[in-house]
Structure formats: C-alpha cells, structure tokens
Amino acid sequence: MRKLKKAPDHVPGPAEEAALRVYFERGSKSAIEASWWKILGVVSMAVVALQSAGLIYMITTKEVHVIQVTKNDSGELQASGVASKFTPDEDSQMAWASSFASDLTEITPAIWQRNVERVQRRAVGTSIDQVKSYLQKPENNPPQQLARYPTYVREYVRRSVNKVADMTYLIRYELVSRSAPSVPPQTKSYAMTVTLAVIGHKTQDDVFRNPEGLAVTNFSISEDFR
Length: 226
What we know:
Elements: H1 15-61, E1 66-71, E2 77-83, H2 90-105, H3 112-121, H4 126-136, H5 142-148, E3 153-165, E4 168-178, E5 186-198, H6 204-209, E6 214-223
Antiparallel strand pairs: 1-2, 3-4, 4-5, 5-6
Membrane topology: Single-pass membrane protein
Keywords: Membrane, Transmembrane, Transmembrane helix
Protein name: Type IV secretion system protein
C-alpha cells in the first residue's frame, strides 16, 4: 500500500517572515476599515448638508395661497379662486375692526392675556405705541384692575360700525364694568376711529391667527356723549 504523506505541523518558511506577513495584513485591514469609515462619514455629512439646503430652500420659497369667499348681492357665498393678494370684503373689515376694539377694551380674568397678545400681533406702525399707551393707563390695565378687584369684568358691547373712508371705520360701543358681584355695573359709551391695512399672509400660522390678513395702523378713542 502507498503511504500517505503526513501534513506538516508548521508553516513553511521562516517564522519571522510569517509573523511580519500577519502583522502587515492586519495593519492593511485596519487602514482600509479606517479609510472606509472616513469615506462613509464624509458622504453622510454631504447628504445631511444637501437635505438641510433643500429644506431651507423649500421654507424660503414656500407661498401661502388663500381662497377668497365673498358674498354677492343675493347673499350667496362665492369662491373667487386662488387670490395672489387677498383683500377681505367690507363686511369682513368691519367685523375685524370691531373684534380689535373688543380685544383692546375688554377685561376678564380668564382671557385678558390672550386679548393683549392678539392686539399686539395685529398692530403695526403708530398703533403699536398707541396700544402700549392705552394699556398702561390704570383704568385700562388688566393686571392692575384684577389686583384691585379679583372678580373685575369689563364687557365690550358694540352699538354700530360705520365706514368713514377707505379702510377706515367708526365704531360706537359701550363698556360695562363690574367690580364685584352684586355691585351695580357702570356703563360708559365710546367712539373709536380705526384705520386698517392689508398685510397678507407669509406663513400658514398667519392664516390661522389672522385669516383676514388685516392690521391696525392707527386709532383714536373718545367718549361718546350721544
């Protein structure tokens, strides 16, 4: 029978050469893996940068389109399609002006802070200083009135809204003040002339916060003795 050759129990060649080969192979593998992770990191950073740039571009170029609904002579509502510049009709302007007067003058413990924030958001130009001056007066300052009378309530009661000029309206209203329960209310009549401007919408939040896209440029208040 033919004898099988016995497998060698060692690697042919000098042991030092084998050790060097293993050492350099491991070093090459580590270098390749390190280079691979660097490349992967650079690619990931580039992808993130491109995504960020795309997101910024979308945000800065986003447009808000408003569909304007108007009322015709017969009282029916009609949609006029997408308006590039939204301009509310006269009825909407009158209602908006009355709402501004209500937010400015009413005082209630529950929602006075919301009213002040809404008024400040809807004021531009000179009216910003006018709102600040009005609310600083002791009789018109909600925190001072509520600190003095914790249950104090001042209600806004609209009497009439009339057009004075283009985007300018005269609002006649009453303020009914109740300092405490069972105390007779005090009623005073006022007239407010308010001038509006169309500021439009820049973001989706603007549409929800101020659908009409209006703002007050200036106003004046006087007692109405009629």
